[in-house]
Amino acid sequence: MIPRPPPINGYEVKHSRTLRFTTNAAVSQQITYQNLLDTILFTISATQAIDLFNVVRVRRVKIWAIPVLGQSSSVLIIYDGAAIGFVGDREVHQDSSMGVEPAYLSCSPSKQSLASKFQASGTQNAFFIECPTGSVVDVDLDFKADTQGAQVASQNTVTTVLTAIAYRGLDGLGSSTSKFTCPTSLNTV
Questions:
Q1: Mean pLDDT score of the chain, rounded to an integer?
Q2: Which residues of the chain are modeled with pLDDT < 50?
Q3: Through-space distance between the first and last CA atoms of the chain, rounded to whole angstroms
Q4: Cα distance between residue 107 and residue 76, in whole Å
Q5: 17: which strand partners?
């Protein structure tokens, strides 16, 4: 007897990545799922781009901020997103530093919170972040692409070479206005 072919799972494209940003201004703002999905784009024209992935979840956010000599530096993260059936952990994760050692945070959302589940592009809050100029922010994310061809346009227009993978700051803004600078050798829009 010839055995039947076994099931094949996992056709979807998955990507787990740590993305690093450096702040070029003080940050005190919400980061949405739309912002997170707009970090990796595919440009389709001289002014338009689509998100390379359709859903995202947050595994961890890390921040390092060194104070100016003689001053202090503080960083803060709150997973405060909310939707029917899920809410953020609402815990305030905060650290301050005085001297030469940086303020440092490394925190994950609660297992049953909104940020720990896959979310589609939207204006719901993933987390609130507060940090000074010159902070290094690492965001550990899990991405999945839609296997049925759905495309989500980036929230802001681009100015770049056609048909290329491009990166954008954590706030979803273009490279000229974003408070979050991507590594310099990447194709940023």
A1: 89
A2: none
A3: 57
A4: 10
A5: 141
Q: What radius of gyration do the chain's Cα atoms show?
A: 18
pLDDT of residue 59: 96
**Sequence-ordered list of residues with C-beta below 8 angstroms from that of 57, at least 6 positions apart, any chain:** 115, 116, 117, 118, 119, 141, 142
Tokens of 131: 């940090």
**CB contact set of 33 (below 8 Å; sequence gap of 6+):** 56, 119, 120, 121, 122, 123, 124, 126
Residue-wise pLDDT for 46-89, tens only, equals 888 899 999 999 999 999 999 988 889 999 999 987 766 666 77
pLDDT score of 160: 67
- Helix, strand, coil percentages (3-state) for the chain, rounded to 5, are 5, 45, 50
Task: Give all domains of the chain, ordered by start, each with its CATH number.
Answer: 14-181 (2.60.120.220)
With a CB cutoff of 8 Å and minimum separation 6, the contacts of 167 are 19, 39, 40, 41, 182, 186, 187, 188, 189
Q: What is the pTM of this model?
A: 0.90
156 CB-side CA count, 13 A: 20
DSSP state of 114: G
